[in-house]
Amino acid sequence: MKAIFTLLLLLLSASLIAQPEGKLFMLQQGALPSLSYIQYPGDTYQQVDIVEGNDLAANEDNLLVARGFGADGVYVYDLATLTRNDTITGTYANWIDMWEDEKLVVASSQAPYLRVFDLANNNQLLFSLLDTSVLTYAPGHLLVSDDRAYVLLQDRVVVVDLDLEDTLAVVLTPHPFHFGGQNAYLTDGGDKFYLNVEYATGAIRSSLMSIDKLTLAVDTAFHFEGWFNQYPPVGTPDKIYVFEFESHFDIIGDSLYLFTRPSQFVDYAINYDPKSEAIFTYGGTLTPNTVRYYHNGMFSTPVSAPTMTNSLFVEGTSTAIDDGELIAKTLQLFPNPTVDRINLTFESPQMIHEVRIVDTKGRLLLHRSYEQWMSWMKFDVSTLAHGGYFLEVNTAEGKVSSPFVKW
Q1: 3-state secondary structure labels for all residues of 172-185
Q2: Has this prediction a pTM greater than 0.85?
Q3: In angstroms, rounded to a whole number, what is the distance separating the alpha carbons of residues 125 and 116?
Q4: CA-CA distance, 402 to 396, in Å (whole number)?
Q5: Is CATH 2.60.40.3080 what the domain over 2-10+319-406 is classified as, yes or no?
């Protein structure tokens, strides 16, 4: 019995770690274009601002929104309050990314094509570059990895050394997507970066090319007709997710795996949380305008969201993991597993603000507010289904959480 109980708690803890914890920010289009987010766990949708944007980036303190093609300005939001507190002008930003946390790299729709701003020094423009030999069209996409910026221009990628503030190389790609191409994106893949592009030569055709970061050698990983890459590829440590989820290119195996169901019945991969290793997806026609995450072969409950064009996941803090020592010192939960009730005791009286019971998907099942000193509490859990749950207590000393099993 003890071994079974221990195993249940280990599985329950693993399920918590597997959940994304933070906010999935989204840019949305339509009659009222907006910036919004889904909070995990809890799976709640919230609109932040009515704003038209094209790309997202974030550092430790700020969320940044590029206004997009032809428009000037990058909006700066405080991550803690989600209030817009600044606008960086002189950017003409199509695409944005962060370098060394406090430096904003901008691929601009107007010359110069690359600009770098110092957020820690009053958004000062550090340097800009314009190579007239490669600049004919506005940048198609931007990727910052280590101390390099990769800027997609026409049928080539310009490699910029950010430390040297200079163009390092220009990499030509083998397909003529600059005449009819669209939906061209760069994504990071460790020792390589990948270029996914749709181009038109009488029929829709798509290619995923890998480019070695050291040698800058181009390898056409695959080339196929009939695919439409609606969103940027999602890179994980061993896969590049492309087209309909779960289609992906295996980085280590150097091979393509296709998901063969019709595209109207599948989701599209849109983002990745490295901490939980969960893949966020956006729904097809069976679950339109919904966002879910996928982990260990299972989807979470879908969350409704308007038409989405871009997303960025920003991790939060897990109280269940970070407060483990505090839990062990102050909180005892028994019996566990339980049939009908849970008793909660503290070593000494605590100022209790609120108590919550949530399931392993973060859904709130019980909520009570107190604002009083207590050292013992009891809860009726007889109506809960069999399975694993978390008891969360918000005290004056901080927030603590402990798993329990309804037997």
Answers
A1: ECCCCHHHHCEEEE
A2: no
A3: 6
A4: 17
A5: yes
HSE of 406, CA atoms in CB hemisphere, 13 A: 19
Residue 242, helix vs strand vs coil:
coil
* Length of the chain (residues): 407
Kindly report the CATH number that applies to the domain delimited by 22-315.
2.130.10.10
Contact yes or no for 103/117 (Cβ under 8 A): yes
On the question of a cis peptide bond just before residue 165, with omega within 30 degrees of 0, the verdict is no
Sheet containing strand 192-200, strands side by side: 182-189, 192-200, 204-212, 218-225
How do the pLDDT tens digits run along the chain, 407 residues long? 444 444 444 444 444 446 888 999 999 877 778 999 999 887 889 999 999 898 999 999 999 999 877 789 999 999 999 999 999 999 999 899 999 999 999 999 888 889 999 999 999 999 998 765 555 667 889 999 999 999 988 778 999 999 999 999 999 887 655 444 467 889 998 899 998 887 666 666 778 889 999 999 998 877 776 666 678 899 999 999 988 888 899 998 888 888 877 766 778 899 999 988 999 999 865 667 899 999 877 888 889 888 888 999 999 854 333 444 444 346 788 888 888 889 888 777 788 888 888 887 677 888 888 878 888 888 899 889 888 888 888 887 777 777 888 87
- The span from the first CA to the last CA of the chain, in angstroms, equals 12
Would you kindly state where each structural domain of the chain is located, as residue ranges? 2-10+319-406, 22-315
